[in-house]
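In full, the data:

***
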Amino acid sequence: MFKVIGKYGEIVFLTEKESAIIGYYMTGMKLQQIACRTGIDVLKIRYHKRTVMRKLGVKSNKDLILWFIANRPSFSLEEREG
């Protein structure tokens, strides 16, 4: 699990898969490209992305990108929990 800070300052735990998908998404990859890269169905990729957005308290792709920019150092350097 990865520990990050949500939109409202709360601690949020992301699974390794969720973290990887968001990391790929933030590099500019499309959901279909992420699906090909990970071997996970594109519908599952979409589901995991939406789950992360819900956990973080963001409602749009724009908000997700803004969250990532604001939290990039902690997102990429965060140690796994448990």
User: Anything to note?
Assistant: Residues 31 and 42 are 6 Å apart (CA to CA).
